[in-house]
UniProtKB/TrEMBL annotation:
UniProt keyword terms in alphabetical order: ATP-binding, Cell membrane, Kinase, Membrane, Nucleotide-binding, Phosphoprotein, Transferase, Transmembrane, Transmembrane helix, Two-component regulatory system
Basic and acidic residues biased stretches: 262-272
Protein name as annotated: Sensor-like histidine kinase SenX3
Tree of life domain: Bacteria
Organism: Streptomyces diastatochromogenes
Covered residues, full protein: 122 to 395 of 417
Length: 274
């Protein structure tokens, strides 16, 4: 409607300009719609645990002469409170990776340390499901970037691999250096033997709050923000993330990040002039 009216008015200026204007309006509208969706999603995600907490606290008061019921309700209150804490923490992480320039305090980060940290973060969950975790090829590799953000990105991928896999399967983390035109990159691949992701969903899983199966994600404490955080971290580091997956066979998420030596060499070739 509006875009068409504008295009009719400026048509005499030439079709190229019209096209640019229409594209601009469409993009501005898309951004506005995404922002509105995000706020609506956050509100909904916050309301769910808060509503549950409110109901459960009423139940506790009503059951005050039944100590067992009080225990049960209190346990569920704890789960909802944890869910709320996770969500708020992930919202803070997301806003940080969207707004801060990670390269302000970039440094060479040891890949074996990143991997060890990610594995540690999931050790408990993997243990209860008897999932074996194995890492290889990490020795002597360094990526260039913000240590905290890189750890969050890899940690999210390993956490997902464990969460979306059945018991007694294997999660592998493989690292290697690959040659690239602009300088060497480090590739970090997280492979699981889990439920996999359909082609249709593959296009959407990096969106904020998108989950293939919201009930399952919630059960494992997921917020639907993990992969959005991963996407932002790799983008701001000049890297990329790709996914290969086959349903009911498993998935591989691959991070490609600048190698520390290569990033430093690039900086020396183009020294800051001021
Ligand atoms: P969540 O907190 O729900 O895990 P993410 O942003 O990390 O949110 O992931 C989005 C969705 O992508 C998940 O809900 C899940 O449906 C799907 N997904 C992510 N990683 C995997 C994986 N390794 N195997 C299967 N599905 C996955």
């Amino acid at each position: 409607g509006e875009a068409l009216a504008v295009s009719a008015r400026v048509a005499p200026l030439g079709s190229r300009l019209v096209l640019l204007l229409v594209e601009d309006l469409t993009e501005a509208r898309r951004i506005e719609a995404v922002r509105r969706d995000f706020v609506a999603n956050v509100s909904h995600e916050l309301k769910t645990p808060v509503g549950a907490l409110s109901l459960l606290s009423e139940a506790v008061m009503d059951a005050s002469d039944d100590p067992e019921a009080v225990q049960r309700f209190a346990g569920r209150m704890q789960i909802e409170a944890t869910r709320l804490t996770n969500l708020v923490q992930e919202l803070i992480d997301l806003s940080r990776v969207q707004n801060d320039d990670p390269l302000e305090d970039a440094e060479p980060v040891r890949v074996d340390e990143l991997v060890a940290e990610a594995v540690d973060r999931c050790r408990h969950q993997a243990g209860t499901k008897q999932i074996t975790m194995a890492a290889g090829g990490t020795a002597d590799l360094h990526v260039w970037g913000n240590r905290g953000q890189l750890a969050a990105a890899l940690g999210n991928l390993v956490e997902n691999a464990v969460n979306y896999s059945p018991a007694r399967t294997r999660v592998g983390i493989a690292a290697r250096r690959v040659n690239a035109p602009g300088g060497d990159m480090i590739e970090l691949a997280v492979t699981d033997q889990g439920i996999g992701i359909s082609d249709k969903d593959k296009e959407r899983i990096f969106e904020r709050f998108y989950r293939v199966d919201p009930a399952r994600s919630r059960q494992t404490g997921g917020t639907g923000l993990g992969l959005a955080i991963v996407k932002h971290v790799v983008a701001s580091h000049g890297g990329e993330v790709t996914v290969w997956s086959a349903e009911n066979q498993g998935s591989t998420f691959t991070l490609r990040l600048p190698e520390a030596g290569a990033a430093r060499d690039r900086a020396q070739q183009h020294p800051d002039l001021d």
